């Protein structure tokens, strides 16, 4: 009897909490994967402002990109799409747009003048075939950074900090290994291996080579000596893996630098959120390098997509979300915590740390910026590329010639 | 991301079979499935026979052997991924004991990783087979065994040649349960290796899930799923047919 009373009471309590919330304001259910310490602090900045603007935020955080895709796909297919969901700027939305399953946020984008404050290439990515802006570009990440622990380098006696994947870099890694620490920490998930490969590719080939391969799909560039050199360097990097690398996630990997267990790693600048959450400072406790003969930068944008649906208030909530998330204030607060750059170029950058300023300098220079593979290749082709990278990295029996042939096939096979 | 109904013939299947990842997935499923089923049956039977020797503390032993089966696959995978982790698992432990050269890093070795998955699955699956076999052994006519012993048939021949045929229903039941376990291996792989290192522990279910949901490649994913269904029919079909024929014969005999 008592138990029954408790259950009824609990339901009544929940009901009492929910009902007024549902009645007021725009209700937005947002599916995202921002769950690590730095990431969740970042999204909270948007949530607070959204609620202050009268909205109601229903947080649907899931763990990992595949779970995100699965949840979103199932919800859209079942006719119960979320108000918004996190995604990557790229070509993954073409199917949904063709089926008319996405709304746009063009009204807000035009009213708030997004086109004046976002760089051209990014505007192209978030604009649909009708010329309407349909994605909310939350931030811009560079996925091709090298990070290092100043402490570890000092302990191992590394004096010359490398700028790219050259002999200086490998010498430094070996020196740290000899000192009994992990020289180069690489994680064991295929997307980490892929970002590492892309970082090597851009560093050794430069912007023109990158664009020739991924944008112009120039077979001569793909079969050039540069590609061979890239694969050679990538294979050499695979030999520096420590025993614990298998399956290691990127936060664990970054943590090895934070705790002084490892010297270098390569990860997107979302890793900076972990450094920040651990109380470490850019260019004081840890250093950052955009590798290459110049500091090249791959544009990797986190966006929110807004599915269409018949429920009342959906469009209003989406427009409010677009307005709030893109305000200069939430852009800067969100990105300070996440470690990324604000997509808007007109925000107050005085609070950016040393690494963000490096990134910003490259992001603002059209000569140094290249689009990510997701922006130029279909999702299927990008997936095959990731397969190739992870197979090559983990299986020495795949020759470089075979790998180059497969790369050529993948690029040629993408729409 | 959502299905579009255009007729493309066998294009998606061609893409599927050209993918080295799919090939590795299929090989792994066969390798894993065979070793897993055979090892579980053998070990389960041996354990059941040993326990059947009227040992002390039988209830306790039974509980211990069966307990892994009570764990979810995800928990099993996680715990074993810690146990097998070379930096703080078994290898580190033995090295700390003083055996500096001890190497046991299956999870980070692409050639051995699939065996780590099998090992974990066998650990979990043996108990249930043992219980089934034990139940079967208890049903064997004790008088018959005694008379065979009187006739001078050695014990090992009884256990290898006389009892197994009597246990056929138990073996079949175990087979069905274990086969289901092979299909379930998805959870275990996700928790233990996430399909890595590289693509070395991919299984078809993982391939389909990732292509469908993470890559939005509905075509190749559904082609993979169709092949999975077909192979299930090929494996299960004859078994069902055989049972039907067997039961018809029995009816006819009566």
Automatic annotation (TrEMBL), chain A:
<dbReference type="InterPro" id="IPR050490">
    <property type="entry name" value="Bact_solute-bd_prot1"/>
</dbReference>
<dbReference type="GO" id="GO:0042597">
    <property type="term" value="C:periplasmic space"/>
</dbReference>
<keyword id="KW-0732">Signal</keyword>
<keyword id="KW-0813">Transport</keyword>
<dbReference type="InterPro" id="IPR006059">
    <property type="entry name" value="SBP"/>
</dbReference>
<protein>
    <recommendedName>
        <fullName>Probable sugar-binding periplasmic protein</fullName>
    </recommendedName>
</protein>
<dbReference type="Pfam" id="PF01547">
    <property type="entry name" value="SBP_bac_1"/>
</dbReference>
<comment type="function">
    <text>Part of a binding-protein-dependent transport system for a sugar.</text>
</comment>
<feature type="signal peptide">
    <location>
        <begin position="1"/>
        <end position="23"/>
    </location>
</feature>
<comment type="similarity">
    <text>Belongs to the bacterial solute-binding protein 1 family.</text>
</comment>
């Amino acid at each position: 009897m008592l138990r029954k009373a408790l259950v009824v009471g609990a339901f009544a309590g929940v009901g009492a909490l929910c009902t007024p919330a549902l009645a007021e304001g725009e209700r937005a259910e947002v599916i995202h994967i921002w769950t690590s310490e730095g990431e969740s602090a970042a999204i909270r900045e948007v949530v607070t402002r959204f609620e202050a603007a009268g909205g109601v935020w229903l947080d649907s955080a899931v763990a990992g990109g595949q779970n995100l895709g699965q949840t979103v796909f199932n919800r859209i297919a079942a006719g119960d799409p979320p108000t918004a969901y996190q995604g990557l700027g790229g070509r993954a939305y073409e199917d949904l747009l063709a089926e008319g399953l996405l709304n746009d946020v063009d009204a807000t984008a035009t009213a708030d003048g997004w086109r004046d404050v976002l760089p051209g290439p990014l505007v192209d990515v978030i604009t649909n075939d009708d010329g309407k802006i349909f994605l909310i570009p939350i931030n811009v990440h560079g996925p091709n950074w090298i990070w290092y622990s100043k402490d570890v380098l000092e302990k191992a006696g590394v004096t010359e900090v490398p700028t790219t994947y050259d002999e200086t870099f490998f010498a430094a890694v070996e020196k740290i290994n000899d000192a009994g620490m992990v020289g180069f920490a690489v994680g064991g998930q295929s997307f980490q291996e892929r970002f590492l490969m892309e970082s090597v590719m851009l560093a050794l080939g430069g912007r023109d080579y990158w664009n020739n391969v991924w944008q112009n799909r120039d077979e001569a560039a793909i079969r050039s000596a540069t590609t061979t050199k890239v694969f050679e360097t990538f294979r050499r990097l695979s030999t520096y893996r420590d025993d614990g690398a298998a399956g290691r996630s990127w936060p664990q990997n970054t943590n090895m630098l934070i705790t002084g267990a490892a010297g270098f790693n390569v990860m997107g600048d979302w890793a900076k959120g972990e450094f920040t959450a651990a109380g470490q400072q850019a260019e004081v406790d840890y250093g950052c390098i955009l590798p290459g003969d110049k500091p090249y930068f791959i544009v990797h944008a986190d966006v929110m997509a807004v599915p269409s649906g018949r429920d009342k208030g959906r469009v209003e909530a989406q427009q409010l979300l677009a307005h709030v998330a893109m305000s200069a204030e939430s852009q800067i607060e969100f990105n300070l915590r996440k470690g990324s750059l604000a997509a808007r170029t007109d925000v107050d950058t005085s609070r950016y740390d040393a690494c963000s300023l490096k990134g910003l300098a490259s992001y603002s220079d059209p000569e140094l910026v290249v689009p990510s593979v997701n922006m130029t290749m279909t999702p299927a082709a990008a997936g095959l590329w990731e397969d190739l990278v992870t197979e090559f990295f983990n299986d020495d029996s795949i020759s470089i010639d075979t790998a180059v042939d497969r790369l050529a096939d993948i690029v040629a096979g993408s729409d | 991301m959502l299905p579009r109904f255009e007729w493309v013939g066998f294009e998606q299947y061609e893409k599927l079979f050209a993918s080295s990842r799919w090939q590795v997935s299929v090989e792994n499923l066969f390798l894993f499935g065979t070793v897993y089923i055979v090892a579980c049956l053998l070990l389960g039977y041996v354990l059941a026979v040993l326990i059947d020797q009227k040992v002390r503390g039988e209830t306790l032993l039974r509980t211990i052997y069966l307990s892994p089966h009570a764990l979810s696959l995800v928990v099993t995978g996680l715990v074993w991924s810690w146990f097998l982790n070379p930096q703080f698992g078994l290898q580190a432990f033995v090295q700390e004991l003083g055996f500096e050269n001890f190497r046991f890093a299956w999870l980070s070795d692409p050639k051995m990783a699939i065996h780590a998955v099998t090992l974990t699955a066998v650990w979990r699956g043996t108990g249930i087979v043992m219980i089934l076999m034990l139940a079967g052994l208890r049903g064997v006519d004790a008088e018959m065994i005694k008379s065979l012993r009187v006739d001078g048939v050695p014990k090992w021949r009884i256990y290898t040649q006389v009892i197994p045929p009597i246990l056929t229903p138990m073996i079949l039941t175990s087979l069905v349960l274990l086969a289901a376990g092979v299909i379930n291996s998805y959870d275990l792989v996700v928790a233990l290796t996430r399909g890595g290192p590289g693509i070395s522990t991919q299984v078809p279910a993982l391939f389909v899930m990732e292509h469908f949901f993470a890559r939005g490649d509905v075509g190749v994913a559904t082609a993979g799923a169709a092949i999975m269904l077909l192979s299930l029919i090929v494996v299960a079909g004859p078994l069902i047919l055989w049972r039907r024929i067997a039961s018809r014969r029995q009816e006819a005999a009566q």
